[in-house]
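Hi F.,

I've been meaning to write this up properly since the lab meeting, where we talked about keeping a consistent format for the predictions we share between groups. The idea is simple: the sequence comes first, exactly as it goes in, then the structure tokens exactly as they come out, then a line or two of notes. No screenshots and no reformatting. I'm using this chain as the first example so we have something concrete to point to.
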Amino acid sequence: MSLSERVAAAVDGARQWQRLMDMAKLGAIAGDGVDRACLTPLDRDARRIVMRWAEEAGATCSVDAAGNLWLRREGTDPAAAPVLSGSHMDTQPQGGRFDGIYGVLAALEVMSALQDSGVTTRRPMEVVAWTNEEGSRFGPGCMGSMAWSGHSEIETFSDSTDAQGLRFGDALAELLASEADVPRRALGGTTPHAYIEAHIEQGPLLEREGLAIGAVTGIQGSRWFVVTLTGDSAHAGTTPLRLRRDAMQAFVRVATALNTIMDDPDDVLRFTIGRLQVEPNSSNSVAGRVVFTIDLRHPDAAVLRARGDAILGVIEAAAGDVTIDLRETFDAPPSVFDPDLVSMIEQAATALQVGCRRMPSGAFHDAQFVNRVCPSAMIFVPSHKGISHNPAEYSSPEQLESGARVLAWTLMELAS
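Output, unedited:
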């Protein structure tokens, strides 16, 4: 038995499951869901528990200026570039028990398996919990990995506020103060040998095809926008239609025009109007202001750029006599993962005798930004009915164990 197979065999699926269930208690909501927003007291409690588990696995802990939590297990060659794995610990407000946290705890389970089997790798192995991947409390998402990778300075996000008006910069300062006893490390500056992120699929393909593993080939690009249409609020019963500057009617025309230009016969492009705010939001008042969001995604950078750049012109042509404000809040180009790493994940699945297929990711992940710095790839495990960002999100203990074993085999090959 090779060292990779030995460590994969030492993965304890029951231990991993219990840790996932312990994490799910922090922010538990009805229906087996979890609401654990980033930089909250619940988030801080979860980080402390993970640090304790890491120390039991022979790892040391540190934190950087973006609040990213790092767990490091030394190798025989401390000067060698580390092998990195991880994901995030924050959830959506009506989130599930597996999105994000599985990637952290699967990587931590590999460290525990190394400890149990008495194996020391040549390269150091590091696990990272990235700050604010979800973006549900402070927008945009992936702040920690964007700051670490050099995509954006962490100070760029300081004035982002949550629903209560609390600034991200202040919440981050509070977290770092609460972890003053945890050693600090530089934000970025070290190039890992490779990065592998384990994650639930958040889609139905693996379950539908009866496969255990997805070897992820890349992540489609995303562009997010906030559009504000400003007209005049007026009395619904007394103001003639031809005299109105009705922001809601302008929105209807704009949405129709955008749906037309975003039509894709191949159904590859993803166009979503996900949030709509209307003022004064009264049944007998003409809407004076409408704010809505656009989420645009495509795996081809040229298509993403062309469709996104066309949005303003389409809105101007359709909106009529209202004032238009268009603001782009997020721009992440498509990522193509390292083909050798994708092949290595397939080899791991073959060695461990579990079914595997190549597949892209429709959702964005921290790996999209880590890929700017070092060779990266992802491992998907099945999601029941493809449900995610929902209390009904579910992957079985056996599916999660298979993912951790494939992760262990892959990390061992890289770290040896």
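Notes:
Residues 218 and 337 are 5 Å apart (CA to CA).
Residues 301-319 form the longest helix (19 residues).

If this format works for you, I'll send the rest the same way.

G.
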